[in-house]
Amino acid sequence: LPSLLCLGDCQLHTSCGIHKCTTDFISFTSHLNAALEDFDLEFCNALRAYSVCTYRNSKVCRGNLVYHFAVLGIGDLMTQRNCTKEGPTSSTNPEMTHDPCNYSRHTEARKHQGREKTSLPAYLFCGLFGDPHLRTFKDHFQTCKVEGAWPLIDNNYLSVQVTNVPVVPGSSATATNKITIIFKSFQDCTDQKVYQAMTDDLPSAFVDGTTSGGDGNTRSLHIVEKVSGKYIEMHARYIGTTVYIRQLGHYLTLAIRMPQELVTAYEESQDLQLCVNGCPSSERIDHSGHLPLPVMGKLLPWGAVSHPLSGYTLETATTKCHEKILVKDVYFYSCVFDLLTTGDANFTAAAHSALQDVEALHPSKEYWHIFPRSGGGGVGRDSKFFVSLGLLCLILVEYL
């Protein structure tokens, strides 16, 4: 917002309070995330507060050029965001900003009261898609079997369980056909709410028929249907959590963004959480988080994959995936892997949408793309190397 920022000119007008108005606006909006559903609501509140502040300073600032730029900028932004001139405003009073049913505002109030030294809450991302491929809260990427029901998340605020079923006869490949989510009761923000999705049944309501939890006016928890029967979002403002669920083909995908302090709020008995600790080693299809290197005397049997049962060759699968995923990261290789395994082109869309969900929900852009290592140590935030498709085929042969 270059036109709204005071670049030192305010120092020449000590009686003008535009610098304080701008500083407060930046404080109100610095913690907001444009990908979250309540962004416009909070941003409009901040703009109205900014507008009120400039109005109070209109007389003493009338000769200040920065002040007039700010007034024009506020008007433009309010029009762009469809903000009404009348409505609630952000407040510099910590008691007024304290809202137990709005996690971001609640943590901001704690910071102002000196109970926290960190300026922003840290968020984590977890996703599950495809055959199935898991991206943990630690940004580790794994491919697992995990047939049957498994907990992705199980903490004091939220439980997420997925059920995976075989997709190809004679193969250990599985994919998700059922997701159950329990939002646990929290103060006056929401009663316990249960959501359940299954293949060909992706509802836009909780199992009790409601679409929100707690006071309908505050919308501390609610469901948004984006594409009927194909894509829904759940926004739990009271715990700062967003969940995306999609159906692509016959299977479901899930992506979630949650504050780190809540992710780690669980008991010792709740340690089996795939999003937190990854898949058990006995359920892993990949090897220590990376695709295996060829070993001496064990060459890739190219003839075995030249006419695979899936109907895709390495070349056609690579071409198909490259149509949707341009960067050859783990999502690209997962797409190729799934096509060679199942022959189902819907897995291409699943990998592509999983990457889109990362870009929408993951808090750190530099970690959107992760790449398989060329050596041991797993796939994570420090992964730097591409892996050849030949290595992918080797694990595919072992997998089948």
From TrEMBL:
UniProt entry keywords in alphabetical sequence: Autocatalytic cleavage, Cell membrane, Disulfide bond, Glycoprotein, GPI-anchor, Lipoprotein, Membrane, Signal
> What would be an example GO MF term here?
coreceptor activity
Question: Repulsive guidance molecule N-terminal domain location, by residue?
Answer: 16-85
Record keyword Lipoprotein present: yes
Gene Ontology BP term (one): regulation of primary metabolic process
Matching Pfam families:
RGM_C, RGM_N
Gene Ontology CC terms: plasma membrane; side of membrane
* Entry's localization field: Cell membrane
The residues covered by the Repulsive guidance molecule C-terminal domain are: 123-363
Q: Does the keyword Repressor apply?
A: no
Q: Which domain of life is it from?
A: Eukaryota
* Topology of this chain in the membrane: Lipid-anchor; GPI-anchor
Regarding protein family, the annotation reads: Belongs to the repulsive guidance molecule (RGM) family.
What name does this protein carry?
A: RGMB protein
| Gene that produces this protein | Rgmb
